[in-house]
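Risk register update: the risk of archive-format incompatibility is retired. Evidence:
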Amino acid sequence: MSDKTVERRAVRRHKVLKGATISFDDSGVACVVRNLSTSGATLELASSVSLPTSFTLEIKADQFIRRCRRVALFDLLPNSRPLRTAGCSPEHKKTARRSEPFL
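Archived output:
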């Protein structure tokens, strides 16, 4: 993030570079977690992956598993390698109780 970029998120994200798995419909897809906070994460995955609205994110090295909802999806072409980035946040149940924060 450059000095001219204004951070609009309510909670500051921490830069990380962690391998993770996105699970949905009885399948798993490898991804990389680029940043992480209590309110969400940015994920990097192959552009061919069709990411559903709701999924489970698992970072095995940290024993981290969270149910998530997709909030953004962007296709990128860095270094001629097609990538997709996805913003996600914890999935909140429709009850009065909220799910766990990310961190």
